[in-house]
Amino acid sequence: MKLSHLAKASLMLSLSAITVLNASANQDTQLEEVVAAGQKINQSAAKSQLKVNSLTEQVQTKLQQFNTVTKELDGLNVYNQEMQAQLDNQITELAQLAKSMEEVSVIERQVSPLMARMISTLENFVKLDVPFLPQERSKRLNDLNTMMVRADISVAEKFRRVLEAYQVEVDYGRTIEAYSGLLTLEGQEMDVDFLRVGRVSLIYQTRDGSQLGQWSESTNQWQTLSQDYRLGVNKALRIARKQLAPDLIMVPLTNIQAKL
């Protein structure tokens, strides 16, 4: 059976339409596959980016930690250098202290005899000196001798007290002082006022002012003074007791009389 030209054309058109439809269907399927693949790639890229971001944050954190630790390490190195310098200085000081302690032991063995000689010299000086404040000065010397045999007082403290006693004796030579005491005159003990002007004059006056006397270095005894000195002595006593302002006083000088 033979088809007419029209039938052939229709058949060809139908076949072409079917082919186009099939091609279009295939293209849609391929497009969907491409889109799906693209979505998978995008999802994979997003996941990869998240991993990259996470790793970047971790790297930044580790880097900050590293920088912090590095700074701490630098600080510790500087601190260790300072501590080492201090330690070296302390070791040097310890060596010097050890040497000083050895020298102190030698000095202590030498200082004790020196102090004993100083006290003995001071005792002789007081015996030869003008006899003022005998009880006070004698007690000071006795306290020094007692102190020297005590083990609970350091050598430094002993030496300080010996020097202090010397300083007190030195001060006597440049001060004026009035004090009361007992004095034996012509076999009778009397209450008198003493006036000390440095070490150049030591005078007594009875409380009623009836008798005046002066220590003589040439005879080592008391000598009677004229009543002409009474006003000067009374003025000097009041100045020494701070009852009058400092002023010029007229009193006899023991040392000058002794030299004369």
From TrEMBL:
UniProt protein name = DUF3450 domain-containing protein
Q: Which Pfam families match?
A: DUF3450 (PF11932)
**Source organism's superkingdom?**
Bacteria
Signal sequence: where? 1-25
InterPro entries attached to this UniProt entry = UCP028069 (IPR016866)
Keywords in alphabetical order:
Signal
